[in-house]
Amino acid sequence: MKKKKLQQVKSTMSEMFELPKEITLNMPKLNLIGDSQMLVENHRGIIEYTPNLIRVNSTVGVIKVHGDQLNLRNIAAEDIMITGKIKSIEFI
Amino acid sequence: MIFLKIWNYFLGYLVIRVDGLSLEKFINLCVSRGVKLWGIKRINYTSLTANISIKDFKSLPPIVRIVRCKVKIKEKRGFPFLAYRFRHRKMLIAGMLIFLVILYILSSIIWVVEVEGAQKVDEEVIYKLLEQKGVKAGVYKGKLNLWDIENQLLIELPGLSWVSIELKGTKAIVRVVEGVKPPKLIDTSTPCNIVASKDGIIHQPIVMEGELVVEVGDTVRKGQLLVSGIIEHQDTQIVRYVHARANIWARTWYEGKGQADFSSVLKTRTGRKITHKVLETKNWQINIDTPDIPFDEYEVEEKRQPLLGGDGDKGLAWVIRDYYEVKRSSGRDIDRIAKEKASEEAMENALKNIPNGAKIIDKKFKYDIIKDIGYKAIVYVEVLEDIAEQIELSVN
Prior knowledge:
Shape of chain B: elongated
Number of domains of chain B: 4
Number of helices of chain B: 9
Shape of chain A: elongated
CATH architecture of chain A: Sandwich
Helix content of chain A: 10-25%
Strand content of chain B: 35-45%
Largest sheet of chain B: 5 strands, antiparallel
Strand content of chain A: over 45%
Distance between the termini of chain B: 95 Å
Strand order of the largest sheet of chain A: 1-2-6-5-4-3
Largest interface: A-B, 15 and 17 residues
Oligomer: heterodimer
């Protein structure tokens, strides 16, 4: 309960001061360009990688990306760049 | 992104193939240990390919041991590997460097000097002066003080009013503008007459000062008085001497002759042309272009440009051959083309005599056929021009 309250306070505070939430709340930031490129910042590692499905761990749960011929163009400690044809994105 | 690619190429990178069961773990471990991977492609369930820098590849073994996968190098890309291959071929690299050095040295030397714009001043004189000042083939560009040379040229050749030397690659282009000498002015205080400078028919006299003694339509001869500088007052009979000024527009005639032989127009140029360059020395030639000519019939014009101080026959020379495609003309065409050619030549000759500022009003061609040889053409050109010429009056 206490954690949830803390989260809420953080959320309202960052809204008040217009601070980026992905930093204050430590949430992933997804950046999509059409359906061909996706940048996931603030991730917690890859769980599964196949050409049709990529699962990326994050603080809000697992991000599941369905698509065709998915590649990991760039991968670093902070962000992952996924290219290919993206069909759907799910949060589990 | 392109910058990153060039940077990666410069540092060199490897394309690796990783085989194993838990490849996600491999990726995660790489990321957490700061090993940068890019361009990851999954081939099948147990294998993937990725790009990795040379430096990072050395820190892979501990990761491989933990994940228990196999890493194979598929390809080596980038400049370091290319350089590695050349490590025993020192002369090749030396040759490349020598080539670059020679290229640099050759391109910093003047090879050709060109003078543009000289008409009255003899080009040879300018070339000779330029040579004295150091602008000649085979001179290092950096040594020349162009500003100085330009000024010296201006001083030594009074016929020039402007000189510019431009270095374009290995070519020194010397542009000159010749000064036009001001016409001899007759002081406005000295009285003078105006006479005709040519035969003609007065068309429109515009008198600014003086007394017109001819009328519109009068035929005048060369040297005839047109405007008098002596004005006598009608009533008082007092004579006044003035500096006569006038524009006397008159119709004058010029004539030009031309001739064209039938034999010279048997073949006409179609306008298509091919230029071949040949580098020639005393004993051998180098063809720069392929020597075949795609025309059935052609005419050749050859120009020679000496290189490296070669004067004509000796030394190196560029030979530029222009091949013009020609077409045989049929009987009726020969007649027409010969006529055209003769009249063109006649007009050209006539225009040589017509001064600037004259307006052409009419031209008439007359043709004479010379049997079996060709056409003779005479053109009479009627022009409007100013025939006023000031002549000083001697007042006793």
